[in-house]
Amino acid sequence: MVDVADLYDRLSRPVLVFFARRTCDGELALDLTAETFARALEGQARFRGSTDAEAAAWVWGIARNVLGDFFKRGQAERRALRRLGLEPPAVTCDEIERIEQLAGLSELRGAVADALAALGARDREALRLRVVDELEYPVVAGRLGVSEQTARARVSRGLRRLAAALEEPASA
Amino acid sequence: MSEHAMDGAGERGPGEGGDMAGERRPGERVGAFGERGPEGVLGTFGERTPDEVLAAFGARLRAARVPRRRRWRRVLALVVVVIAAGGATATAGSALWASAPEVSAPGRPASAPRPDTASRPAYVARGRGWRLSASSCRFGERATVAVFLTVAHGGAGWRCDALAPAVAAGVTPPPVIFAPPRTRTHAFLFGAAPAGTVRVQALLIEHGAPHAVLRDVPARAAERPKATVYVARVPAGARLLTAVGLDARGRPTMRCDQETCR
Fold first, then answer.
1. What is the pLDDT of residues B166-189, one digit of tens each?
2. CATH for A105-165?
3. What pTM did the predictor assign?
4. Integer Cα distance of A138 and A107 in angstroms
5. How far apart are CA B155 and CA B148, in angstroms?
6. Which of the four, A22, A101, B89, B224, has the lowest number of CB atoms within 10 Å?
7. How far is CA B52 from CA A157, B4, B28, in A?
8. What residues in B contact A44, CB-CB < 8 Å?
9. Which residues, 6+ apart, have CB-to-CB distance to A164 below 8 Å?
10. Which ipTM was obtained for this model?
């Protein structure tokens, strides 16, 4: 059986940074990290891999699911934590700030702002309508006076550029 | 730090937290639940590095006990239900289970999501020289169907626990074109489609043909597991460009390329 404690020692830090960079919130990232490893602990008997790489991939898969649940529901799930009788780590503002520093969030925010500013006005507007206002593509297309396909292309192009901005500071 | 500050504020959310909603004072604890600190020492708050915060939670994670799953109760309940319903009727309608092909670790896509549940594969369609099995996979609230075509000397298809993330995120895994070993004349085009699909239109480039060809493939619904599947023989060497599932009124139920179905 996989040793979740060992995985936690190896991966909790990168998982925390992963969540922080995707939610831009150090405290939330900590909650999601805790839920990830609680789920791993609960599911360790079901893990069938045999190598460290497989175990790591398994944890990252759980982390992505936890993040997906968060984006879907708009709040951090704590089901596994509750079942195990655990509470998410409690932290002070200073500690949150340190987590956000660790994840390089201020640089990231700057990079996203720069990337957003660098987008063409049409792509930026399409992105705003789709992502910020959460409008359906036909509505976005109607607002922009373009076909749905063009609206999709503009949003997709904008997201790709923002994604590149997210990745660059991470690899720096 | 005051006792009040140590009480926590329950579930976090906009507008919650009384007077301090949306605002945090330096050094204030903002965790959702009360906690005595990493080793029960109150004075360490505000001093910890992220690694120390993680280590404190790690210690509690190590001490946590995973509740035992009471599977035997479920099995017992199932047996009672089967006996109550009459064993003969239960077995009369049972599915014919298919073997579950093994997927080697290198064959599994990187970061393939692990399904929350995956039903045992059961044969849902058969024809001359082939059998199609299906298994329903659940990823959180999403469900999809993995199909596998077995022929005399091999097989191909999908497994719930070996779907690439993009594939698992689609309504179904994309169609497969499988050229059976020892066969030079034909290949099989097969896949699963969302419920309500009555036919699948596949745009193919057939070997040596100057233009793409649109093939209409009927889809059929299976009961166990609940799945809508399609299988067609296509000329050997055919390549799939795109496939569209259509319901009885001709409305699209899915659009697939080689990577994913939406």
1. 888 888 889 999 988 877 888 999
2. 1.10.10.10
3. 0.42
4. 35
5. 7
6. B89
7. 40, 24, 18
8. 66
9. A115
10. 0.74
